[in-house]
Design brief:
This protein is α/β, with parallel strands linked by helices. It has eleven helices and twelve strands. The strands form two sheets. The chain has a six-stranded parallel β-sheet with strand order 2-1-3-4-5-11, sandwiched between helices. It has a six-stranded mixed β-sheet with strand order 7-6-8-9-10-12, sandwiched between helices. β6, α6 and β7 form a beta-alpha-beta unit. The longest helix has 20 residues. The protein is elongated. It starts with 8 loop residues before the first helix and ends in a 6-residue tail after the last helix. Belongs to the bacterial solute-binding protein 2 family. It holds the Pfam family Peripla_BP_4. This is ABC transporter substrate-binding protein.
Length: 333
């Protein structure tokens, strides 16, 4: 904890004067080896509310945040919301109570954040959005967004299909495993993919349902798709984990993934890249979870009152089967 945040100026001046007096008396006693005032441990405290632990991507994202906080000398208060918005709101309120210096979080869904974000703003605690965004009209409720362009990930997936689908012999039936209902990645990947495939009327989404970004969800929904649709040519899964779960259902139905059903996913975590290299997936649009270092740099800047860009997008690429074989040995996550 670095500083007690007082909402009013006079109290802040009094607190500052008390701190100055305390520091000067301490150094007068010669304990300069403490390297500063006894009242200030010098560490920035960051409160982070994580979505949960639903996927390989999320695990890699959590590791990146924890490791980067340690490397940056930032005291991290970390909360896992188990994919529940009410848990994230509770965690943010706890961080406010604890008077952390900065709050960061990955909002599980886009809506319903204005009230708690206003509480953080009124408490004078800056907020950073990482990974997923919110639909708040009031952009002053957070300092910046750090993460991916999900619409682009969906669009790149659709553009690959446009370039590689065999649509000369009639309609190509697509089933879509959506991410968590109401989440920015699910909304935006769906939008980008649909916009891209509109270029070819033979590409038809015949079923689209949420698998909640989990392997179990992907398997369960894919089983339903296979029962309800006699002809499935393509699966577009909003993340690798749902695609990996769907592999089990496809194989159990006696079909060959990557051949009978073309599979396109997003993320490019190690297990997904292995499936791609093995020919079970056909294309992956990367979504980087390695946001930790940039987040810690941003936390220090907003805490120091420095201006930061409103939106910072991560560098990402895409992978074919051949590119996955080449990239796998060096994958960090
Ligand atoms: C995307 C992230 C998504 C991943 C999923 O930035 O929010 O959530 O694509 C994860 O794997 O569950």
């Amino acid at each position: 904890m670095r500083k007690m945040r007082s909402p009013s100026a006079p109290w802040r001046a009094a607190a500052l004067l008390a701190t100055v007096l305390l520091v000067s008396s301490a150094t007068a006693c010669g304990n300069s080896d403490t390297g500063g005032s006894a009242a200030d441990d010098g560490k920035l405290t960051l409160g982070f509310s994580q979505v949960g632990a639903e996927s390989g991507w999320r695990t890699a994202n959590t590791i990146s945040i924890k490791d980067s906080a340690a490397a940056a000398g930032i005291e991290l208060k970390f909360d896992d919301a188990q994919q529940k918005q009410e848990n994230q709101i509770k965690a943010i309120r706890n961080f406010i109570q604890q008077k952390v210096d900065v709050i960061a979080f990955s909002p599980v869904v886009e809506s319903g954040w204005d009230t708690v974000l206003k509480e953080a703003k009124d408490a004078g605690i800056p907020v950073i959005l990482t990974d997923r965004s919110v639909d708040s009209a009031d952009k002053s409720l957070y300092k910046t967004f750090l993460g991916s362009d999900f619409v682009k990930e969906g669009r790149l997936s659709g553009e690959w299909l446009i370039a590689n689908a065999k649509t000369t012999s009639g309609p190509v039936n697509i089933v879509e495993l959506q991410g968590t209902t109401g989440s920015a990645p699910a909304n935006d990947r769906k939008k980008g993919f649909a916009e891209a495939i509109a270029a070819n009327p033979n590409l038809k989404i015949v079923a689209s349902q949420s698998g909640d970004f989990t392997r179990a969800g992907g398997k369960q929904v894919m089983e339903q798709f296979l029962k309800a649709n006699t002809k499935i040519d393509v699966l577009f899964a909003h993340n690798d984990d749902m695609g990996l779960g769907a592999l089990e259902a496809i194989t159990a139905a006696g079909k060959v993934p990557g051949k009978d059903i073309t599979i396109i996913t997003v993320d490019a975590v190690k297990d997904g890249m292995q499936a791609l290299a093995d020919g079970k997936f056909n294309f992956i649009a990367e979504c980087s979870p390695l946001l930790g270092p940039q987040l810690m740099d941003l936390a220090k800047k907003v805490d120091a009152g420095q201006e930061v860009p409103a939106r910072i997008e991560t560098e990402e690429t895409t992978f074919t089967q051949a590119q996955a074989k080449e990239a796998l040995p060096n994958r960090k996550y």
